[in-house]
Design a protein that fits this description.
The chain is mainly alpha-helical. Helix content is 79%, strand content 0%. It has a single domain, classed as Formiminotetrahydrofolate cyclodeaminase monomer, up-and-down helical bundle (Four Helix Bundle (Hemerythrin (Met), subunit A), Up-down Bundle), CATH 1.20.120. The protein has 7 helices and no strands.
Length: 180
């Protein structure tokens, strides 16, 4: 389905309506990317409250990176569905696995930045940074499922193992942040 405009330009209400439509794209990957982008926005706020311009800049960079992943995932999955209809499924599935893998990669960066803010940030926003770490870990875990399903016909594909390792790394960073 053709989207009315880029996902990042939709209002929250429009985004939720678009996600709820009976269409497989945008779907779980785009939702994970938006959740991750939301986590980075929270981190940018926490860094600013903590008067840490360096961490705020890192969070803004991650926010741009993760917000773009929502559209990338929606487009890649829509293309995969089109290719399946044209009997070109193998290459399409390979390409459709890339955006969720990138979500998992970015989630590690978000969780690690959140861990830094939990440790060094202002106490008033410590819980916000912790929430961002937990969101990042959840996004990474969800990305594992999407990478795996897109690569089911490619037994032993190393990207599944990579996604699992990335999710474990994000979960470790979030768990460490909880213990701080």
């Amino acid at each position: 389905m053709e989207l009315p405009r880029p996902l990042v330009e939709l209002t929250v209400a429009e985004w939720l309506d678009e996600l709820a439509l009976p269409s497989p794209s945008p779907g779980g990957g785009s939702a994970l990317a938006f959740a991750l982008a939301s986590a980075t926005a929270v981190l940018a706020m926490a860094a600013r409250v903590s008067e840490s311009s360096g961490l705020a800049a890192q969070a803004e960079t991650l926010r741009s990176r993760t917000a773009a992943l929502a559209q990338l995932d929606a487009d890649a999955y829509a293309a995969a569905l089109d290719a399946r209809a044209a009997n070109e499924a193998l290459r399409a599935d390979l390409r459709a696995a890339e955006p969720p893998l990138e979500i998992a990669r970015a989630a590690v960066d978000v969780a690690e930045l959140a861990m830094q803010l939990v440790q060094a940030g202002d106490q008033r926003v410590r819980a916000d940074a912790l929430a961002a770490a937990v969101l990042a870990a959840a996004a990474a875990r969800g990305a594992v499922a999407l990478v795996s399903v897109n690569l089911t016909t490619f037994e032993g594909d190393p990207r599944v193992a990579e996604a699992m390792q990335l999710a474990a790394a994000a979960e470790r960073a979030a768990a460490f942040a909880e213990r701080c």
